[in-house]
Amino acid sequence: MEFFQLRCSDESGSSRIFHGKDCAARARVIITIALRVRVFRMGVWQLSEAASARRLLMPARETEAIILKTFPLGEADRLVSFLGRSSGRVRGVASGARRLKNRYGSTLEVLSHVQIWYVEKETRELVRIQQAELLESFHKAQSNYGLSTGLAVISEIAELILPEHEVSEAMFRLILLATREVERTGDWALPLSYFAFWTVRLGGWLPRFDRCAACGTPFGTKPAFYDAHQSGLFCEICRRAGMKPLHHEARILAERFASERLDRIDYQMSLQASARELREASLGWIENHLEKRLKTRELLETT
Question: How far apart are the C-alpha atoms of 252 and 230, rounded to whole Å?
Fold first, then answer.
């Protein structure tokens, strides 16, 4: 069987003859390469589709949570910071939460106790909040300006001192207990004092209440003195100018806080001054640790 011949010239101008079967062999090579490239591209596409499907089917995480803060995001969304009982402090986006008609309702109010569902992706810092259901409402405290100032201080402190994604069962229960008592009693004075004291204690910043940090002299029934810019309590001899007193009654109240639940302490008129002294000292130690002043603390002075 004879094959046709093809004459062509190369770059030097000399002629060269190609037989038909040579052309056929080259064609088969080209077709084989093209098919392999196509198979490779199909494989890459299928892997990409599989990865996309896994992202779409990623199951939502569920946790009991306390809403710490919310911030406007765009025209319709909200950025939500919440403390999950099993997830720690997390930030996420609640799509459409700023619209008049949205699926979240009052679940995103500050310090609301909720059950929350969200999707987390490794490549993104913010989670996507899918759903939130209200477990416990604190509407009376949230809607009253005077009470809401106490909640705002609790919210700000928790937001600033809690690391992201670090579970803290003790802080979760403390925030919930303090918020419940503000709602139940209609007063933030004792709950906020209790919350601030225990925040300092859990953080490991609580000084000794029985003796001077400088000379070691026991205080007895005499007042101790503190400065928000340094840790420790000082006696009358070691005190410096500008230090504030923490009287014996306030230190006794601190002992009660350390050993009794907040909801079992009967808040009487005689405790008001001691609770105020202990609260101011504890907030000062918190600010000293944070190295910044709490913005919401100024609100307490106006209520």
Answer: 22
pTM of the full structure:
0.79
Q: What does the alpha-carbon distance between residue 20 and residue 217 come to, in Å, rounded to a whole number? A: 109
Q: Please tell me the distance from the alpha carbon of residue 153 to that of residue 159, in angstroms, as a whole number.
A: 10
Query: Same domain, yes or no, for 69 and 41?
Result: no
Instruction: For the chain, give the number of residues.
Output: 303
Tokens of 298: 């100024």
CB atoms inside a 10 Å sphere around CB 134: 16
The CATH number of the domain where 187 resides is what?
1.20.1440.120
The answer on 218 and 111 residing in a single domain is no
Strand partners, 72: 78
For the record, the structure tokens of 264 come out as 């079992």
Three-state SS across 56-94?
HCCCCEEEEEEEEEEEEECCCEEEEEEEECCCEEEEEEE
Model confidence over 8-62: pLDDT tens digits? 455 555 555 545 555 556 666 566 666 665 655 665 455 555 444 444 446 689 9
153: in domain: no
* H-state helical runs in 7-58: 20-56
Rounded Cα gap, residues 40 and 201, in angstroms: 61
Rounded to the nearest 5 degrees, what angle is found at the Cα of 287, between the Cα atoms of 260 and 150?
55
Angle value at C-alpha 157, between 193 and 170, nearest 5 degrees: 75
Q: Note whether 18 and 52 are same-domain residues.
A: yes
Same domain, 68 and 49: no
Sign of CA dihedral 144, 146, 150, 153: positive
Nearest 5°: phi and psi at 80?
-120, 130
Q: Total structural domains in the chain?
A: 3
The tens digit of pLDDT for each residue in 115-143 reads: 999 999 878 889 999 999 999 989 999 99
Contacts of 225 (CB under 8 A, 6+ apart): 233, 234, 235, 236, 239, 243, 244, 245, 246
**Inside any domain, residue 39:** yes
Q: What residue has token string 């009376």?
A: 140
The domain in which residue 107 lies consists of: 61-137
